[in-house]
Amino acid sequence: MKRVYVNEEWCLGCHLCEYNCAFANSGLKDMAFALKGKPIYPRIHIESGEKISYAVSCRHCEDPICVKSCIAGALSKEDGVIRIDRNRCVGCFTCVLVCPYGALAPNADGVMQKCELCLSNECGEPACVKGCPNKAIVYEEREAAV
Amino acid sequence: MNMEREGQVRIPSGCAIAALISREGRMMSGETIIRAMKPMHERSNGLGGGFAGYGIYPEYREFYALHLFFDDHAARRECEVFLKEYFEIVKSEIIPTRKIPEITDEPVIWRYFLAPLKSMLFNLQLDEKEFVAHAVMKINTQIRGSYVFSSGKNMGAFKAVGYPEDVGLFYNLEEYEGYSWTAHGRYPTNTPGWWGGAHPFTLLDYSVVHNGEISSYDANRRYIEMFGYKCTLQTDTEVITYILDYLVRVQGLTLNEAANVIAAPFWSTIAGEKNREAAERHAYLRTIFPSLLITGPFSIVLGFTGGLMALNDRLKLRSMVVGEKDDRVFIASEEAAIRAMCADAENIYSPAGGEPVIVRVNEGVQL
Amino acid sequence: MSVDFIYPEFEVIRNEDRCIACRVCERQCANEVHFFSPERGKMMSDEAKCVDCQRCVSLCPTRALKIVKSDCALRENANWQNNTIKEIYKQASSGGVLLSSMGNPNPLPVYWDRILINASQVTNPPIDPLREPMETKVSLGKKPKKITRDESGRIVCSLSPQIDLQMPVMFSAMSYGSISYNAHASLARAATELGIRYNTGEGGLHEDFYQYGKNTIVQVASGRFGVHEAYLEAGSAIEIKMGQGAKPGIGGHLPGMKIVGDVSRTRMIPEGCDAISPAPHHDIYSIEDLRQLVFSLKEATEYRKPVIVKVAAVHNIAAIASGIARSGADIIAIDGFRGGTGAAPTRIRDNVGIPIELALASVDQHLRDEGIRDNVSLVVGGSIRSAADVVKAIALGADAVYIATAALLALGCHLCRTCQSGKCNWGIATQRPDLVKRLNPDIGSQRLVNLMTAWRHEIMELMGGMGINSIEALKGNRLMLRGVNMTEKELEILGISHAGA
Asked: What is the CATH number of domain A60-114?
């Protein structure tokens, strides 16, 4: 199964992936209208050190701890992709705490969200991959998924 | 006659060619080759026709037979002064022609049988062939009103502005006998109507008749001129003749090797060749003579003492057909022309593009 | 402000409706033009620092930015143009020599744009490149004068060392130091994939790139930076740089700030030390000295590698080329006055040297007149901008061309001409690791391969149109060209006729 991977060698910390993700999941057609004047809640976020940057998003683990930890049964694995049912999420933050990668975070309305590989939105293929100017983020199959 | 020469402008043309040789060196009258040109009448437009015959001057076989066009007799006398400095003139006469309405405006047409003066040869330290080639180029570029159009031993070119079958009649070619003949009819798209522009083009005993228009002309010309040749006519035939003279006489290549240079196989063909030695040789020849590769459609017949070589461009963009009967081999742009020479010719085929057809008179035959 | 205030050349225009304050422009501008103002709650720009490299414009996700030439202009004056006046202000202020990057931008004649190409019709068929073989392979190097045969009459296939190219284009010299490690990696990988060559320039060869040696030309320039035996062995050909088109008569110039880490190590000079190559090679003061160096290099590499001599196109280039052709060199590379550079004194870049089209035509003819055209192959550069320029160059007489600016454009350069600052936002002309990162060689090499593949197809289309199916039949084929908008003299030097004649 294809997953989103990051080659930190090429990540420039430009944050375009964050904005592309937020736009792709906004359900709107005009990016400026979708994102202007409000804080964004992307499902991928940049973590930077002094000389290195890295984009963090859900790894769609084979043995997902978040799914096991969800007290409301909102998280599930479908065909390898870990999804959240927004209607079930009660905002307890357990998944946020247990995810070893910090891939989950709340949305504007307090409901948890995470990368779902842009499979359910208009984009079709992961927006962060498409919009990365330096091919730091790739969408591919690799051995031994975590 | 209008001696405004070609050379000011390049004239593309399409045409007709034919050739005939006896492998046993049997003498054949020029009448046969004239017959070949009749069915190909439409390939010419009457603006040029010519023939080359080999073995036609047996009594003078030791001497260079120079054929010249002169504007007038004053030009001839001026030229003779030059000739006498370099050659011993054994015979000097007008080339007999027949008056026919189709051929008009003829210049003075003359021939000499010459031997290079030994003292001049020694002085200039050239071999005989270089000597004659130099003298011919000198006359053609420097002596006004004179043009040498044939300069080989025991062979001669005959050409004019007109349809080839008429040109043949004009020169009484039915009265000449040779073991090998080539012929050409021209279809230039623009013409100053100059007799010297018709084919065949000759240098020493090489004669070339050519159908086609080469796109590599200027690349070829600017390279071959480095070696002393002067492409004054700006015709494809001229540059092809000089290239063949350079490759065969100066560089010592065989005819097959020369064909491998001018109609070199594609790199992809060379890569796929089973015979690695041949592949290496083809690659080498292509690498060292890149500017002698001839691209564009061409179909040529090279005549030389003792044989003929016919060659098409590697994409076979012009027609050429070969046939034979007994000791005779026929080559022409069309099968109809071969049949006109010999109604029951056999083994008629079209040689592949880039593959030379070389026919020689059998070893030991006296020419 | 003060007496030497010069109004910024560019203005940053931000469409406020579109800007989402994502701050990508801020993060990606090494010149620190953009910044977020928390008090105002929006993005602001300090246009004084803008060099019009268009990094922010390209990356802005909502296309909210554009850079325009400022219309704050001094009074119009055809003689004292704005730039001329500003240059005097700069010199009055600093007392220094003006430095510029990339090639001469001034409106002098571009002859490529005045030359037209033939096509075959009616009397000679054009050839269809989609369906027929179309060959663009060339071999650069000395060709023998005479065929020799062995005892059994077979031709001896011996040839001096050649550079075999799948198409007649090579990447020209750009030193490691003037451009980044990743730029070199892109060039090396692309050259290998395409079957052509790239040139190390005068910065030496980083050991990580020795693996691409078969497609590398190593340069020996007047500063001899990075030249040692392993270096000479590593490449497939050696180029002696006598001059370059952008700055004939002087040597290369790399400011000390770019001489760091691996650049310093590869060049074999201390960090921070300005790398100013001497004007001449101090062991070449005349043509016979050049011959000596050519043979020294050949001896050092056992005559296995062709030697190229690169010169700038200057007034008596034909005679110079003739001398080089007799010096034992296998290839002559001529760089015209439009050639690019990482840094050069502005006055030299803009006023010294002659157009490559004229230089090429006269050198090619001169060598043929002397009967020595076969002694060398000719490679020309400065500036070749498209496949059409390549075809015209070959028809004038070149064996192959060198491209550099075109290659950098493929890598992302936007020709802002500020390479000398070392803050190239595209990761090309910089040594800052955070900037160098921006050029991913996976992307860079792919774009170079794409560019050359596209050019190769275009060359084939143009050849087919002329009825030529092997590039060697185009070499020197000047009848395939016609000129427009040129004087008799220009046509005469180029050796072509006027269109319609």
From this structure: 3.30.70.20
A14 neighbourhood in chain C, CB within 8 Å: 24, 27-28, 59
Neighbouring chains to A with at least 3 Cβ pairs closer than 8 Å:
C
Q: Is any Cβ of chain A less than 8 angstroms from the Cβ of C440? A: yes
CA distance B322 to B20: 10
**Is B3's pLDDT higher than 50?**
no
Q: Was domain C138-498 assigned CATH 3.20.20.70?
A: yes
Domain that holds residue B77: 16-211+316-360
Record: contact A134-C437, CB cut-off 8 A: yes
Q: What is the mean pLDDT of chain B?
A: 91
Decide whether A1-57+118-146 matches A60-114 in CATH topology: yes
| Secondary structure (H, E, C), C111-169 | HHHHEEECCCCCCCCCCCCCCCCCECCEEECCCCCCCCECCCCCECCCCCCCEEECCCE
Q: Which fold has domain A1-57+118-146?
A: Alpha-Beta Plaits (3.30.70)
The angle that helices B255-262 and B276-288 make with each other, rounded to 10 degrees, is 60
**Tens of pLDDT, residues C143-171:** 999 999 999 999 999 999 999 999 999 99
B172: domain CATH number is: 3.60.20.10
Q: Which of C40, C57, C60, C62 to mutate to test the interface with A (most CBs of A within 10 A)?
A: C62
Cα–Cα distance between B135 and B79 in angstroms, integer?
11
pLDDT tens digits for range C210-226: 999 999 999 999 999 99
| Catalytic residue (choose from B15, B79, B231, B342) | B15
